[in-house]
Design goal:
This protein has 172 residues and is α+β, with helices and mostly antiparallel strands. It has a single domain, classed as Alpha-Beta Plaits (2-Layer Sandwich). It is 32% helix and 23% strand. The chain contains 5 helices and 8 strands; from the N terminus they run βαβββαβββαααβ. The strands form 2 sheets. Strands 1, 2, 3, 4, 5 and 8 form a 6-stranded antiparallel sheet that branches. A two-stranded antiparallel sheet has the order 6-7. Helix 3 packs antiparallel against helix 4. The longest helix has 15 residues. The protein is globular. The model has no long low-confidence stretch (mean pLDDT 93).
Length: 172
């Protein structure tokens, strides 16, 4: 069993699409728990603000199978293959951490390489799992968050917590 963490983001009708993803994740991974939702500016392109959260759950799936499940949820919630990597999107599910696995495979690198530099991923993750040690034997998520906040206070302060509670969303 591996504890995994997945970033969830949307800037196209974001409340609708985050709710869709939360329902689908709860349906597939019954023990899923969610951070609060945060609003932050688009990163890497000009566009509407994103709503972001992080989901955590346990799975017995191997990484590749989990990634297939996440892609299927994205499709179910409105993402299309034509959606640009750096542009508006209905939903984006990014695998951040997969237990203590560190390394690369087909279409992934773990832990996610930019995790420690992205407040919109690291902040919600630190809320959900501050004591989780980053692989292979790194600092805790909470320690990474404090380091980012000290180095880039503007990015950390750019996150605005919202009242949307994905933990209250039931599976379909």
């Amino acid at each position: 069993m591996s504890e995994v963490f997945v970033a969830i983001g949307s800037n196209v009708d974001p409340e609708k699409h985050l709710r869709c993803a939360a329902r689908a994740l709860r349906e597939r991974f019954h023990d899923v728990r969610f951070s609060a939702c945060y609003r932050n500016p688009a990163f890497g392109f000009e566009g509407a603000d994103f709503l972001n959260a992080v989901a955590g759950f346990d799975t017995t799936l191997p990484v590749e199978a989990l990634l297939q499940e996440l892609r299927a949820i994205e499709t179910r919630c409105g993402r299309t293959p034509a959606d640009p990597k750096w542009g508006p999107r209905a939903i984006d599910l990014d695998l951040l951490l997969f237990g203590q696995l560190a390394g690369q495979g087909q279409g992934y690198t773990l832990p996610r390489p930019d995790l420690s530099r992205r407040a919109y991923m690291l902040g919600p993750l630190a809320e959900l799992a501050p004591r989780f040690y980053c692989p292979p034997a790194g600092p805790t998520v909470g320690e990474l968050w404090e380091k980012l906040r000290a180095a880039d206070a503007a990015a950390a302060e750019g996150l605005r917590r919202l009242g949307l509670d994905l933990n209250a969303i039931e599976a379909q």
